[in-house]
Design a protein that fits this description.
By secondary structure, this protein is mostly helical. It has helices at residues 2-13, 45-49, 69-80, 88-98, 103-112, 117-122, 142-151, 159-173, 186-193, 214-222, 236-239, 243-252, 261-269. The protein folds into two domains: 2-170, no CATH class; 209-269, no CATH class. Residues 242-270 are annotated as: Disordered.
Length: 270
């Protein structure tokens, strides 16, 4: 972890120049308030980091690269360095690359970029370094996201997914948006036209102690979102329920056992 972080700081402080046309900035300097913005030229981190990454035309053909930890680290920095949330489709692609690496390598990469494994799984940082719960998040721009997507064309694990995403983008651009009608009611249309094949009961029985608490069931279901090799890094209480935990919750929050939504959500997740 220390070596990875030192590697990033060394590159930032030495020779990461700006790739924006007609910009003469030869060294990225993180901003005090916005780390992704260079104090020298006011251009973003991605515009600088691309000077250390391969250009699209070099791997536009069918040839792909083997996934290495150092390369994944550099690509991760495009979306994780100085941010607090990850665009969904980039996280899907990054999950694929992480599934090839060792568990220790994944954790080292995340820690070096000031992300925890729990925050990464969630897709956004829950608290800042001072422990304050965030209500707004720094995230890469759409233009930076498009540039970063091209980096995933380098690997066989993600190349075909990026190509499909590109096709979806083209299809979306071809859609003509009609003039908005003030009388349109989307909710009424969907409710009247949708055939619901699954109906959840209005009431469900409160689970017994042997079945565990609703929230434990939900967390167990969420564990399936992890890449397989990362499951071992999740603390044991998150992957298994126990009677003592349920009893404690009943004593402290007796009303929780009568709540319906979490049990319904766990059914959906399963």
């Amino acid at each position: 972890w220390k070596k990875s972080k030192e590697h990033l700081e060394l590159n930032i402080n030495t020779a990461i120049y700006c790739t924006v046309v007609n910009c003469n900035c030869d060294s990225f300097k993180p901003g005090k308030l916005r780390r992704r913005l260079c104090e020298h030229c006011r251009h973003g981190w991605v515009a600088h980091a691309l000077s250390k990454l391969k250009v699209h035309h070099m791997y536009q053909g069918s040839q792909v690269e083997i996934v290495h930890s150092n390369v994944v680290f550099d690509i991760c920095s495009l979306m994780l360095y100085g941010t607090q949330a990850i665009p969904v489709r980039l996280k899907i692609l990054l999950d694929r690359l992480f599934s090839v690496l060792k568990q220790e390598e994944v954790i080292q990469i995340l820690n070096a970029l000031d992300w925890t494994l729990q925050d990464y799984i969630r897709g956004y940082v829950l608290q800042d370094v001072a422990g304050k719960v965030l209500d707004r998040w720094a995230i890469m721009t759409f233009e930076e996201e498009i540039v970063t997507l091209q980096q995933f064309l380098r690997f066989g694990e993600t190349k075909s997914i990026v190509e499909l995403m590109a096709l979806q983008d083209k299809e979306g651009q071809a859609v003509i948006v009609p003039t908005t009608r003030t009388n349109s009611d989307i909710r009424s249309f969907i409710e009247s036209s949708t055939q619901r094949s699954v109906r959840l009961p209005a009431k469900t029985e409160a689970p017994s102690c042997s079945n565990g608490h609703h929230f434990e069931t939900l967390v167990n279901s969420m564990a399936l979102m992890l890449p397989l090799q990362l499951l071992n890094s999740v603390p044991a209480p998150l992957l298994s329920s126990n009677h003592s935990g349920t009893s404690s919750l009943r004593r402290e929050h007796p009303d929780l056992l009568h709540k319906e939504p979490l049990s319904q959500m766990s059914v959906i997740l399963k």
